[in-house]
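Supplementary Text 2. Reproducibility record for the structural model of the 185-residue chain.

All settings were left at their defaults, and a single model was retained for analysis rather than an ensemble. We include the record here because the model underlies the residue-level annotations in Supplementary Table 4.
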Amino acid sequence: MINNESGQYLVKIAKDAIKQHLETGEKITKGKNYPAELDEKSGVFVTLNKNNNLRGCIGYVEPIMSAIEATIDVAIAAAVSDPRFPEVGLDELDAIDLEVTVLTKPELIEIAHYKQYFDEIEIGTDGLIIQKGYSRGLLLPQVATENKLDIEGFLEHTCMKAGISADSWMDESCDVYKFQGQIFK
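Retained model, structure tokens:
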């Protein structure tokens, strides 16, 4: 995981990336004077909230690029490419609270019976990915606590995010992964 200084740097560069993209249509460069640990590959999500309501959230689950490059990409995508929302306007940027979540690599939860999930998932610590066939849904660790979900509710909501029935997590053909995230605001 990364230290707080590096996390705060990601928040700043995410906001700068959004602002530059909205002003010029161009992508910001990572520059030279940033914490070296941000060159490590990491999954990253950027969440935008306005008036305590979700305004955009996009991310890379897998560590496919450096944390700094991933943050720049997903910050811009959260602002202009989240299909659930219209593009963020430059005039609303100051009203948006930005959150960067740096993820650990997802790990498959291997179980013999679905009730074992209750021993394997920790609310407030773990995020979930549920996959069944081509359907896949993800919820960040903070979603469970923000929405006061217990483990079963968290599993059900992740299934619904995947577009599958809420009880699919009990099905043997369904894979459940967990990951952790460091949140910086």
